[in-house]
Amino acid sequence: MKPKIKYLWGKEHLTIDLGNRIEPRIRMIYWVEFLMTMGIATIFFLHSYKLQHNWVHLLANLCLCMLSLLAVYRFLSRMFYREKLVITDNHFTIVRQTPLHSNKSSYDWEGMGALHYIGKDAKTDHPLKGSSFDYFGFDAQEHLVQDLHHAGNLFFEFNGEPIRFARGIYSWHAEEIVRMIRLYSGSSLQLGAEWKYLMEEMKWHDEY
Prior knowledge:
This protein is an alpha+beta fold. Among the domains are: about 30-80; about 95-120 and about 155-205, no CATH class. Helix content is about 45%, strand content about 20%. It contains 5 helices and 8 strands. The chain has helices at about 25-50, 55-80, 140-150, 170-185, 195-205, and strands spanning about 5-10, 15-20, 80-85, 90-100, 100-110, 115, 155-160, 160-165. The strands form 2 sheets. Strands 1-2-3-4-5 form a 5-stranded antiparallel sheet. Helix 1 packs antiparallel against helix 2.
């Protein structure tokens, strides 16, 4: 179950903690990749003792250590990735965190374009979708690959460059986030045309 979005109201800022929103099946893929990489590294490490030359043995072990460290880094960075939004009077800040790294990007309101909800990128269906010949589930696999490399469901342009964020955020989450930001920042946040439909849809669901 995905964590609830947390809204932390301060005197000079609003912090929106999106948390870690990785799908269970994506988590499973990360685990499989990590275990397979570590298993391969362990097998090669055991076989490296059979090497006759000391310098070859040392070089092999060094490469295996680097492979193991890379596997651990990728695993921790992807499994424990989380996002926060920090809203102030002057800036919209996106904080991306992992146990080993933290990145903070700030954008002033004046340079920000309208906020858009994009959802998942459009994908052309595989030619074998729905066919009895799709024995290996190629269409489902393409959707899974898309989820693995998804950059985020919200975006805006800043000085002509698209900025995507909010992985795993669906339309009802996005609508709630927008309402909270507007409560704090007023009209600083501009919205794309699609939000009119999204807001009306949410209002209809709330009433019925």
